[in-house]
UniProtKB/TrEMBL annotation:
SUPFAM superfamilies: lambda repressor-like DNA-binding domains (SSF47413). Pfam families: HTH_3, ScfRs. Signal peptide: none annotated. Transmembrane segments: none annotated. Residues 18-72 form the HTH cro/C1-type domain. It comes from Roseicyclus persicicus. InterPro entries: Cro/C1-type_HTH (IPR001387), Lambda_DNA-bd_dom_sf (IPR010982), ScfR_C (IPR018653), TransReg_Diox_bact_type (IPR050807). One of its GO terms (cellular component) is cytosol. Keywords: DNA-binding. One of its GO terms (molecular function) is DNA-binding transcription factor activity. It comes from the Bacteria. This is DUF2083 domain-containing protein.
Length: 443
């Protein structure tokens, strides 16, 4: 028997939602049946999901219960449903009893206020987690921050040394004392300037506490991709011709370096869309359960193309349909991450390398050989990963190819297909954040 899809399962809960709404409004079953012109026994069958309804009867029941028909037939709002699903999945592994995700519609029907509050809190927690992750990553690897901190600490040391001399040598000549006072003033001014510059480096461009400070071209461009969900319908439909319009509508593109980087990455996106059109990859991915291993033939040998296109498919996870949540990491031959699509609970750093055990880096040592693995994070969450290393561009005769590795990641439970044949890897988010102190690959 084929598995019941989440959308079909939700459709079967119409009776539950009618009953919950009736109880919330304090209406007896016989009263509601009389109001819509059916028998109480028939309504009882409907409420126990033993009769499917639609059309005029559904509209009549919705009117009697003072609710939109779609809320009875579809249940919780799609965005709300997705947020509650995310809240349940974000809980750490040892959290005791797991939330009953199959009863989200019942929860939303009985307690709409509390449900909306949980969804709003989950959205804010996810935004703050992303902000903390970015700041923590920046503290460990941002070269601008490292240089600024070095200057600040050096200036503080100079101020302390000068002040120590002034305190320990009360009999200094007036000329020397004046010179030390001048040095102290100059160093204090320098410290103030550098501390102010350091603060500006972290200031967000938006007032929202959950927004990330996009202070470098790559961060600004990644913010543009994140805002679009890594899917650009205009480029999918019009190709390269739509790129200027996409850039013009994006925020923060005034800087020439940022604009050039955005154009380059969007051109690569358009190249992928032309080689593997959405009209081809989306139905094939749906039929294959979004398993990359079943879609390799689509890329005509270009595995990285398949992985990148899966990461750009539009999501409709709130209805249990569409692409699952995918994360993407791209690194060059040195292992430096040059592009990423962030994924909840799977940290992909911006300024430093990821975990040395990721298939992303293992693929660099096996060019052209696709890798698959199950990654187990320190908190217990598991993710399926696929990676491959290929030349970023064709190389001429006698020239060494410039290699680039691509890794696609998704929560282990997001796909219905069997787990990959690769190993189970006890990995982490990167050595500067990973609690696995005994890991042999730890730097």
């Amino acid at each position: 028997m084929p598995p019941v899809t989440p959308s079909a399962r939700r459709a079967q809960l119409t009776g539950n939602r009618i009953r919950e709404r009736r109880l919330v409004r304090g209406i007896k079953q016989a009263e509601l049946a009389e109001a819509v012109g059916i028998s109480a026994s028939y309504l009882n069958l409907i409420e126990h999901n033993r009769r499917r309804i639609g059309g005029k009867l559904l509209v009549a029941l919705a009117r009697a219960l003072d609710v939109e028909p779609a809320q009875l037939s579809e249940g919780a709002d799609a965005t709300l449903y997705d947020a509650l699903q995310s809240a349940a999945q974000a809980l750490p592994a040892p959290f005791g009893a797991r939330p009953e995700t199959d009863r989200i519609d019942e929860l939303a029907g009985r307690f709409p206020g509390w449900t909306a509050l949980i969804a709003a809190q989950q959205k804010r927690i996810a935004a703050l987690d992303a902000l903390v992750e970015g700041l923590r990553d920046r503290l460990g690897h941002d070269p601008v921050l490292a240089e600024s901190m070095h200057e600040v600490l050096s200036t503080v040391a100079a101020i302390r040394s000068t002040a120590d001399i002034l305190v320990r040598e009360p009999d200094l000549e007036a000329v020397w004392r004046s010179r030390f006072h001048r040095n102290l003033h100059e160093e204090a001014e320098r410290l103030s300037t550098r501390a102010t510059a350091l603060l500006r480096h972290f200031e967000a461009e938006e007032e929202d506490a959950g927004s990330r400070a996009a202070s470098t071209p790559i961060e600004t461009v990644e913010a543009m991709f994140e805002a679009a969900g890594h899917h650009f319908p205009a480029i999918e439909a019009e190709g390269w011709a739509a790129i200027p319009g996409v850039i013009a509508r994006a925020a923060g593109m005034e800087d020439p370096a940022t604009r050039d980087l955005a154009e380059r990455l969007l051109t690569a996106y358009a190249d992928d869309a032309a080689r593997l059109p959405l009209a081809l990859v989306r139905p094939a991915a749906e039929a294959a359960g979004y398993d990359p291993a079943a879609l390799l033939a689509l890329g005509a040998g270009d595995v990285a193309l398949v992985l990148r296109r899966l990461a750009t498919l539009p999501r409709q996870a709130a209805l249990g349909e569409g692409a699952p949540p995918f994360g993407l990491a791209v690194c060059d031959g040195s292992g430096a991450l040059i592009f990423r699509r962030r994924l909840t609970a799977f940290s992909i750093p911006r300024f430093g390398a990821g975990c040395p055990l990721w298939p992303l880096y293992r693929a660099l040592g096996r060019p052209g050989q696709p890798e698959a693995a199950l990654i187990e994070m320190p908190q217990g969450a598991r993710f399926r990963a696929w990676a491959v290393s290929q030349p970023a561009a064709p190389a001429g005769f006698g020239e060494a190819p410039v290699m680039q590795a691509v890794m696609l990641v998704t929560p282990a439970e997001a796909l219905r297909s069997p787990a990959p044949a690769g190993p189970v890897i006890a990995a982490g988010p990167g050595c500067h954040l990973c609690p696995r102190t005994e890991c042999p690959a730890r730097r």
